[in-house]
Amino acid sequence: MDVLPLLKSLGVPTGSVGKGVLRVVSPVDGSTLTSLPPASPDNVNRAVVRAQEAFLAWRMVPAPRRGELIRRFGDTLRAHKEPLARLVTLECGKILEEARGEVQEMIDICDFACGLSRQLYGLTMASERPGHRMAETWHPLGVVGVISAFNFPVAVWAWNFCLAVVCGNPVLWKPSDKTPLCALAAHALFLQAARQFEGAPADLSQVLIGGADTGKALAADARVALLSATGSTRMGRAVAPVVAARFGRSLLELGGNNAMVVTASADLDLAAQAILFSAAGTAGQRCTSLRRLLVHTSVAKKLLVRVGAAFGKVPVGNPLKSGTLVGPLIDGAAWDAMAAALARAGKAGGTVEHGGRVRVPGCSGGFYARPALVKMPAQHDVVHTETFAPILYAMTWRHFDDAIAMNNAVPQGLSSAIFTSDVREAETFLSATGSDCGIANVNIGTSGAEIGGAFGGEKETGGGREAGSDAWKNYMRRATNTVNHSRALPLAQGIRFTI
Ligand code: NAD
Fold first, then answer.
1. What are φ and ψ of residue 145, in 5° steps?
2. Which residue puts its alpha carbon closest to atom 8 of ligand 1?
């Protein structure tokens, strides 16, 4: 596949494309798209210095004006939605329909961030002292580092980038080494918008191509005020202590192991549709993919027959072709992990339906898999592990309390859902005694969140929140201000301290 015309149409300078040791492979057919030079430690250092300079200029620009730049970035994305989506499909393998959705998510966060740029509100509080006023103010934070995963190669950066920029910060982006071209393209589109905008410093956005070592350098650099890292729990375990040791701020968006509870009163038509998209969509490679189906014994047989039939016929194939619903896994290692998990599940007493390798004509170097439905006797160890592939483990329950306990019995806490027509069950699932996840849904699946809500999860998912609601506070520092406009100096708590 000749990727150069696509890169050129997105405004990517192609001078260094094809010149480097980092091979960029398309999961669609296993072909080499191109190669790139990774950033050296010295490149990282210089990028941080440039970002610091950009920060000093950008923090002076009023927030609504910063929002205007992001509004224009949104327009640039609108104008290039189709080629950018195509590049996303080529490089990470998700079907074009979902790739378009991912670019739409970037556009949505631009709109959100632009509106937000006029709403970075602080509070005023009643002071206990006469003639005093207390308030909190929010200020730009500093250099923001973003480490992103392969499966959302542009949207996750955009969530971080748009909020960071309206909050007054420059961003250094270390994308997945499996999807560097998407990063170069998204960055180039931002530069296109920034060139038309008076007052945008040159290095508001920078991309650092590389693997784990480049990410480690960002994590260790005390000049990076916030490190927002999206990826596996393994990566978060490595990054978090390094950032904490230098008292930096981290925002972690790590692995999920998401469950859906289906109760006796559930609308099974809706549940079956939601299961197909959540478990098989994106070839099971979303952090929010449905991995555990917890069904009431009375409806289990009926539902699982439908799910098994849907998995058996869902079109698996070339993600660039219309009609395909399940594209490839990212690489051979992902296929090996899927096969190993299915073998472990079988040994633990699971019954595996489907889940075999699919040979796709014209895509012989790609790793395509039919989604697997595994009926498990219990939540064995393998069910506690996130395998980034389309495997759905199904388990049954009799008492509603057991369903909630099963939902919460894994180390991760990202997304969860309940299908029920019973308001008591629904509200209990959403309550303090219900799902322990960052996302809890009723009568929709676990994946496919909107940007308006804060996104993220608890426990081994890392506790971070991105995108909507008040996630912007991650990218700013808060100052509490007390102003004395009286002619006396009373101390708080009534303390007397005079001579
Ligand atoms: P990964 O952990 O292998 O890599 C993610 C990023 O971290 C890459 O850029 C990688 O180069 C970098 N990295 C890896 N080790 C590092 C280290 N020691 N120090 C610094 N950087 C390091 O993950 P992946 O395979 O690209 O993506 C899949 C994983 O990401 C899944 O676990 C999925 O659940 C998770 N994910 C989570 C979210 C979320 O919002 N919670 C979103 C997308 C993906």
1. -100, 135
2. 176
Q: What pTM was estimated for this model as a whole? A: 0.98
Is the torsion defined by CA of 208, 213, 218, 221 positive or negative? Answer: negative
CB of 211 shorter than 6 A to ligand 1: yes
Q: Are strands 22-25 and 32-36 parallel, antiparallel or unpaired?
A: antiparallel
Which pLDDT tens digits describe the chain residue by residue (499 residues)?
A: 789 999 999 999 999 899 999 999 999 999 999 999 999 999 999 999 999 999 999 999 999 999 999 999 999 999 999 999 999 999 999 999 999 999 999 999 999 999 999 999 999 999 999 999 999 999 999 999 999 999 999 999 999 999 999 999 999 999 999 999 999 999 999 999 999 999 999 999 999 999 999 999 999 999 999 999 999 999 999 999 999 999 999 999 999 999 999 999 999 999 999 999 999 999 999 999 999 999 999 999 999 999 999 999 999 999 999 999 999 999 999 999 999 999 999 999 999 999 999 999 999 999 999 999 999 999 989 999 999 999 999 999 999 999 999 999 999 999 999 999 999 999 999 999 999 999 999 999 999 999 999 999 999 999 999 999 999 999 999 999 999 999 999 999 999 999 9
Distance of CA 319 from the midpoint of ligand 1 (Å): 23
Active site residues: 253, 287
- Whole-angstrom CA distances from 249 to 137, 175, 188 are 19, 19, 28
Is 428 a pocket residue for ligand 1 (Cβ < 6 Å)? no
Residues 6+ apart with CB under 8 A from 96: 85, 86, 89, 319, 320, 322
Ligand 1 binding pocket includes 142 (Cβ within 6 Å): no
